[in-house]
Amino acid sequence: MKMTVTETPESKCDVLIIGAGPAGLMTAAWMARSGIKTRIVDKRGTKIFTGQADGLQCRSLEIFDSFGFADRAWKESNHMLEICMWNPGGDGKIRRSDRVPDTPPSISRFTECVLQQGRIERFFLDHMKEHSDIEVERGVLPVSLDVDEAQVEDEDAHPITVKLRHLTDEEAMPEQVKSASGTANGDGLYRSNLSPDDTDDLIRKNREKGGTEEVLRAKYVVGCDGAHSWTRRQLGFEMQGEATDFIWGVLDIIPITDFPDIRQRCVIHSADQGTLMVIPRERGLVRLYIQLKEIVPDAASGRADRSKITPDIIFKAAQKILSPYQLRYNYCDWWTAYQIGQRVAPSFALHNRVFLAGDAVHTHSPKAGQGMNVSMADGYNLGWKLALTVQKLSATRTALLATYDPERRAIANQLIAFDHQFSRLFTGRPARDIADKEGVSMAALRAAFDRHALFTSGLSVTYAPSALISIPPDAAPADAPPPESPHANHPPPKLIPPAPRSPRAARVPIGTRIPSYKVVNQASALPLHLHALLPSAGPSPPFRILLFAGNVLAAPQAERVRAFCDSSLEGEAGLLRAFTPAGTALNSAAAPLQVLTIHSAPREGVELLQHFPAILHPFSEEAGWDYERVWADAPSYHEGWDRAYEGLGVDGEKGAVVVVRPDQVVAWVGDLEEGRALRAFLEGVLRAW
Amino acid sequence: MKMTVTETPESKCDVLIIGAGPAGLMTAAWMARSGIKTRIVDKRGTKIFTGQADGLQCRSLEIFDSFGFADRAWKESNHMLEICMWNPGGDGKIRRSDRVPDTPPSISRFTECVLQQGRIERFFLDHMKEHSDIEVERGVLPVSLDVDEAQVEDEDAHPITVKLRHLTDEEAMPEQVKSASGTANGDGLYRSNLSPDDTDDLIRKNREKGGTEEVLRAKYVVGCDGAHSWTRRQLGFEMQGEATDFIWGVLDIIPITDFPDIRQRCVIHSADQGTLMVIPRERGLVRLYIQLKEIVPDAASGRADRSKITPDIIFKAAQKILSPYQLRYNYCDWWTAYQIGQRVAPSFALHNRVFLAGDAVHTHSPKAGQGMNVSMADGYNLGWKLALTVQKLSATRTALLATYDPERRAIANQLIAFDHQFSRLFTGRPARDIADKEGVSMAALRAAFDRHALFTSGLSVTYAPSALISIPPDAAPADAPPPESPHANHPPPKLIPPAPRSPRAARVPIGTRIPSYKVVNQASALPLHLHALLPSAGPSPPFRILLFAGNVLAAPQAERVRAFCDSSLEGEAGLLRAFTPAGTALNSAAAPLQVLTIHSAPREGVELLQHFPAILHPFSEEAGWDYERVWADAPSYHEGWDRAYEGLGVDGEKGAVVVVRPDQVVAWVGDLEEGRALRAFLEGVLRAW
Hints:
- 2 copies of one chain form a homodimer.
- By secondary structure, chain A is α+β, with helices and mostly antiparallel strands.
- The first copy, chain A, folds into 3 domains: about 10-75 and about 115-240 and about 345-455, FAD/NAD(P)-binding domain (3-Layer(bba) Sandwich); about 80-110 and about 245-340, D-Amino Acid Oxidase, subunit A, domain 2 (D-Amino Acid Oxidase, Chain A, domain 2, 2-Layer Sandwich); about 505-685, Glutaredoxin (3-Layer(aba) Sandwich), CATH 3.40.30.20.
- Chain A is about 25% helix and about 25% strand.
- In chain A, a hairpin with a 5-residue loop joins strand 29 (about 655-660) and strand 30.
- Chains A and B meet through strand 4, strand 13 and helix 15 of A and strand 4, strand 13, helix 15 and strand 27 of B.
């Protein structure tokens, strides 16, 4: 036997992302914008084309918008506006019992919508290509992961060693895809978690064949490799939670039916045939979700008998629930079934070097359309922290990263608690009458929808106090009602999730993403949403000081603004110099700390160059003055007056200072005189130079 | 000498478009959607990358939206919201004298914006590629055009013979581009009309070299080949109009300045240094327009001395006008100069076989940002008429086509009249005081802006009565004020251009594009603009019957709707059967006559399948019921209530019938009982089967 000694190639990167689903791609989006040396690998040789997760919540759309591609999702998706509740009447026949808005009005610029996962992944891939050289390496999977604990605290070290195997195209293609010629119609379960995980099998076979291998040394690794996460297994983290698994069937069809609400999101409780959820989709498709009660996991193995699950069994169950309405179809786009427990990993990170995100650390039922959204939110929370840390712009190596686990694990636990509550209401037998305490009343279901709509929108996510979330001593408690609007004729303040609030911005929940209102550009009269001024941009994800400058035409207030600029922002002792690396222009788009001004004086009376200190609209020899930094809470010519100060609860004369993190989360609120406290906060967050 | 006899290749097409600028590309957009066998040639070997025309008016954006790409233009462009007027004060120094909105509020979903022509052409090219196999053939130019008059009335004939020459890449590249390495900075005049036309020269040289030639037989030819139009010259049409030519200089720079309104559209009249127009653009650029008074065309040749025109001469003139404000720049993106008369061709068509569009038939000054927009509107007017005629769906061969010349020539003449009036106000010396009757007062200029904002938006375009525009006998005269809104608390009706109006839709100008209001989908609760329901779609550009069904929950009105469907729309004698070719499903997306229903009953009380005859939401075995055809004038959950009936002046109980052409222009208005009159109108327009 001849032995060939091949040298295994070795290389280094800053961040290795394992898994190119929504969580991995979202993490990669930040890396792409920040110029971080990143690799992203996925064991699958193909990307997703049809089906899979579908619901896009408001906050996910807001995040897409911050990267610049929400418009693509908004244009292609089906928007869900209304939820119709159907319930058996006295005669046992289903009837519409209620209509509610799917997304509570005025909580976001967006409403919930539905678009197949493959398109969403496409937007991320296009975004990565536009902003970086990072490419998803498909058919590549890790086979070992070692962390050198001696090096984890060394900022410059690459303490993680990962061996990667490169599969052949043949190996990377799942058997089911080969036989189904690209569509999953042949075996809708091929990516379902009802299919056994094939990672170990792929590795073994590739090794036997002598496939190629490489060694990668990384500063950070992010495991986004799904419910069977190989990365999580290497860390030894066991998922914890509910042992009872339900099996859900999913069918995407173009329905032919006389059921009147087929283009609405519906929850249909039948008298004794179970519950059906209808999700209208793009291109005339409708998704039917149904719990397959007749299929139960094997007690010993915990697995369901896959052979019993067919599109027909799902469809027939739906037909029975919809009766006496007729339902048939000529076109099925996709189908699958899931077996879903409600579980959370005990930790999302190891040594703040290896992180887990998405299904790798939380699984739950698909009913509320949360899965993809919460997974993406994990990546969104982690990505900017990683980027600033790799760029050595964080206060310490772990100042930012240490908040990932507590912030996101708390959300995962809330999600499971929500799912428990919602599942019972959803899958329980409908109440026969008021006396029927065992059954689920429509009133209870509706109340649950109302109560949880804000939760499922993703907008109520509130991070607890930490180095990154500062609660002022005089904050209103989390459950105190926000103050009423002073203007009886104006719309009521937008829905505010419970969270502590400062009297300086009494309707801004601290730890939550800042609500968005339209403001008007001082120089161009362009009305734009506040969120549009807070993009997820590079080269370093910026913390932003929102200077609500108040009525700058009143002399004392103009003096306060000037004093804030002089004593807190500018000069050798100022915040901008303190937290901006040498060589980067202060308050420029490249700086990790930037200032955005929103004043409340009548826009026509204000002159940008006269009423605002130069640092608020910084000058460069290439671009002249920056006209995008000073905005007015003022009427627009074509889009009304959004009254941002009132909406945020900021005093129109005196203003306030609000710091938002790179992820638009409110981190600090104070007065223009609180420069010292602001510096103390920033010192815990950003590196002082 | 050896002679090689090469056979000249011959081929046929339905439509040949000469020139791939905005007018030609817009015409091609309709061809692409309609599957018309089309060729489009352009003598230039490269497309435009920087500079050129820039203003995008509301109507152009609405048209882009009808093809599905307004979002791209809207996202990339700079939006112009405000116009600032600057005028010399008593001390002779310029000061801001007024601010007005650039686009009058509420006339459109869009506002005027600015984007370079190259991007706009890109959107058209992408659209063509998405919907057809039509590709622009660059470096191809016609050398002869013959029309066989004996065949022009034969629907099946290809009476036009055009010889095309194919240039080499070298020939198709203008000298100036070769030397300026792709950017036009070296010689900003290379595509300006100050450069002599090189068409004849190109042809001669190519012929001498023995370049390749082909013979094309076409049913229709559209000449969109610019101010020097070769096509127009072949038809022998002489441009008519103003002999006096002005020379305008244009400079696109990133300005460094203390002038406060540099991000606004400005008209700056200096005391004695002339007038400057400032147009803020995308990417921090600003366009400066200035009339170069010191450069006058040579009396004998009519041409200006090109060598005297440089970026510096334009810039220095701008600096003088802006003084005492400082202006400098480090980056110039583009510059040019135009010599512009105000002229219109005597006819836009020959035998309704050869058509002219865009600069080929009208030239005027660039001040109001009209050029590209009016040119595109020519193509938009012509394209659907050509498509339906080629498809033999028009009542006769010329029923539609014969309206192109009168409709668009009238608009060109209005444009020239507007330009005359506006030019004097714009280029005149500012009035020193009220007694100064020679000078232009700011009040006069502002009044002109107000008066003409609707004109320049493109929304006031009103086509005169014709086979395609039917005025009811009891119409309100064009200049009668529209009726007041009956609801004191609702916003006033949107700005309505003067045009005749029917009492059945008292705020709908006949002959004008229908105003757009949001309506709510009956089946899905989705709010959409009426215009979004009227796309410029194929396979045959459809005439649409908008059935304002009124309050369908009232029994007598429900009966009227049923009677309209039974007696006018449906059955063997109905309109849909009469005007839909055999083999095409009635009221389907493929039919040239379609029905869209908008009712005014409370949406929650209405059931699509119960309250509306089946023909209003047609069924197909592939897609089931069509849920996109019935809409409600009702409140939406997230976007308010736009009150379409009130805005259009339609009675909320009794409704009305409005027919819009494929270009969204209101063609016929009547009652639900006027099916006979409706048929008479349609017989003059569409082919009866």
